[in-house]
Amino acid sequence: MTVKKYTYSANQADKQEKWYLVNAEGAILGRMASVIAAQLRGKCNPLFTPHTDMGDSVVVINADKIVLTGRKWDQKTYYRHSGYTGGLRSITARKLHEKRPEDLIRFAVKGMLPKNKLGRKMINKLKVYTGSEHPHAAQKPVTLELK
After folding, report:
1. Domains and CATH numbers, the chain
2. For the residues 34-62, what does the mean pLDDT come to?
3. What does pTM read for this prediction?
């Protein structure tokens, strides 16, 4: 007796990785991050499989020209802990933007990815730069339009 398999499950051999370029100038952080996270995860790919990394690489330029709505510049706070007693540190979005503007985008996208090994693998395909120059011209990234 032969068993027929009707459900197709994609694997790494089926993957055809593309590179996308996103210009963050004037873009709203959360809306842009959700589009980037979907692209990194591979949700736009017809071969999307939740347990396999079928996503593409994304290059973000002009990260220092991102926009936050409302009073989020002063009210949004990012936390980290050293692991020691009293080691909780916080920084507002405005101060983080002054120090490392690319981290605003990286933290927003990371929060929208799965919290497992697969999500950690996906965030490594995100490249964020503050200026309009990037070293990934050899990959010929296609411009990704934000909706």
Report:
1. 17-143 (3.90.1180.10)
2. 95
3. 0.92
